[in-house]
Design brief:
It contains 1 helix and 4 strands, in the order E-E-H-E-E. With 74 residues, it is an alpha+beta fold.
Length: 74
């Protein structure tokens, strides 16, 4: 789950384990839970249904531990 520039929360997929790059992104994202991040995402069509798009993490920038935790987000 990520916060937007407007302070809203957004759920993004990090489960693209169909490649080495995808598996590395999953591990990196899991290691950064509780950190302030800049998240670069891309919209992808689902292979099973081209009409459905999902937001997938493309890159993460870590700004260190988040000291201003939003309730319910961990």
């Amino acid at each position: 789950m990520t916060g937007t520039s407007r302070g809203e929360l957004e759920r993004l997929r990090t489960d693209r384990a169909d490649s080495e790059v995808g598996r590395a992104m999953i591990e990196r994202a899991r290691a950064l839970v509780g950190h302030r991040l800049r998240v670069y995402r891309t919209d992808e069509q689902r292979s099973s249904n081209a009409k459905v798009q999902v937001r997938t993490v493309a890159h993460l920038t870590d700004y260190g531990p988040d000291t201003d935790v939003v309730a319910g987000c961990s």
